[in-house]
Design goal:
Blueprint: E1 18-22, E2 26-31, H1 49-56, E3 61-62, E4 71-77, H2 80-91, E5 96-104, E6 111-115, E7 118-120, E8 128-130, E9 139-150, E10 158-167, H3 174-182, E11 208-216, E12 223-227
Parallel strand pairs: 4-11
Antiparallel strand pairs: 1-2, 2-4, 3-4, 5-10, 5-11, 6-9, 7-8, 9-10, 11-12
EC number: 5.4.99.-
Protein name: RluA family pseudouridine synthase
Pfam family, one: PseudoU_synth_2
Length: about 230
C-alpha cells in the first residue's frame, strides 16, 4: 500500500479568529478562510485554529473541522469530557449545520437533495470521489436564495447561484464534491472545478461559509443556535 504524502504548504493567514461565545465548557468561533483547522504533520503548517486557541485556552480540542478555504462556525471543547459529549451529538446527527455558498452557473431547480456516496481514492489525493460501490453514504440538501450575474474585467458577466447547503452526513469535502456532482462547483474551489479560466481575475477564496450551527449545550442541555453572516 502506497503512502500518501501531503505536500500542501499553507500560506500565512493574517486574519484573526473571532470568538463569538465562550464559557467554562466550550467556545464558539468564526474561522477565517485560509487557516487550517488543525496543524499538519509538516512543521511548515504549524499555524491553525487549534494552535492559536490552545495558547489562550489550554486543553481545548476541536470537535469538528472546516476545510482550509472554508470560513465560519466551529465549536471548540475546553476539556475531554465536553469533547466526548459534543462528539456524541455529531455522531448521532443531532447537530444541524447550514452553509452559504456561491455556485458557478445557474441551478435549474430551486431546491433539491444530492444523494451520492463518497470514497477515498489514493490515486486522486487530496480529492475524494463519488463511488456507489466503495463510497460511504453522503446526503446534502440545497436551496437557492439568489441567481445573479457578476460583472467581470473581460466584459463577460459570470452567472452565479447563491445557495444554502445543509449536509445530513459529514464526509470529507462533501459539499464541494456534491456541488460538482450537480454540475455547479463552488466558486473558488481548486479541487472540484470552481476556479475561473486562466487569464481571468481569480476568486480570492473558496466561496463556502459555515453560517449556522445548532446543537445542545453539553452541560445545561439548552439549545444553542449559532449564526455567522456570510462574508460574500
Amino acid at each position: 500500500m502506497s503512502t500518501i504524502i501531503d505536500t500542501f504548504i499553507a500560506p500565512p493567514c493574517h486574519d484573526q479568529i473571532e470568538i463569538l461565545y465562550q464559557d467554562e465548557h466550550l467556545l464558539l468561533v468564526n474561522k477565517p478562510s485560509g487557516l487550517l483547522s488543525l496543524s499538519g504533520k509538516n512543521p511548515q503548517n504549524l499555524d491553525s485554529v487549534h494552535y492559536r486557541l490552545v495558547q489562550q485556552f489550554p486543553g481545548c480540542t476541536l470537535v469538528h473541522r472546516l476545510d482550509f478555504g472554508t470560513s465560519g462556525l466551529l465549536v471548540i471543547a475546553r476539556n475531554k469530557a465536553i469533547n466526548a459529549a459534543l462528539c456524541q451529538q455529531f455522531s448521532q446527527r443531532t447537530v444541524t449545520k447550514v452553509y452559504s455558498a456561491l455556485l458557478c452557473g445557474h441551478l435549474e431547480k430551486d431546491e433539491g437533495i444530492i444523494d451520492a456516496a463518497i470514497a477515498k481514492d489514493p490515486a486522486l489525493f487530496p480529492r475524494m470521489a463519488i463511488c456507489a460501490v466503495s463510497g460511504k453514504p453522503a446526503r446534502s440538501r440545497y436551496q437557492v436564495t439568489e441567481r445573479f450575474y457578476q460583472p467581470r474585467v473581460n466584459g463577460n458577466a459570470l452567472p452565479l447561484t447563491r445557495v444554502q447547503l445543509a449536509p445530513e452526513t459529514g464526509r470529507t469535502h462533501q459539499l464541494r464534491i456534491h456541488c460538482q456532482h450537480l454540475g455547479h462547483p463552488i466558486l473558488g474551489c481548486d479541487l472540484y472545478g470552481g476556479l475561473l479560466p486562466p487569464g481571468t481575475e481569480q476568486t480570492p477564496r473558496l466561496m463556502l461559509h459555515a453560517s449556522e450551527l445548532n446543537f445542545r449545550h453539553p452541560v445545561s442541555g439548552e439549545p444553542i443556535a449559532a449564526r455567522s453572516a456570510s462574508p460574500f
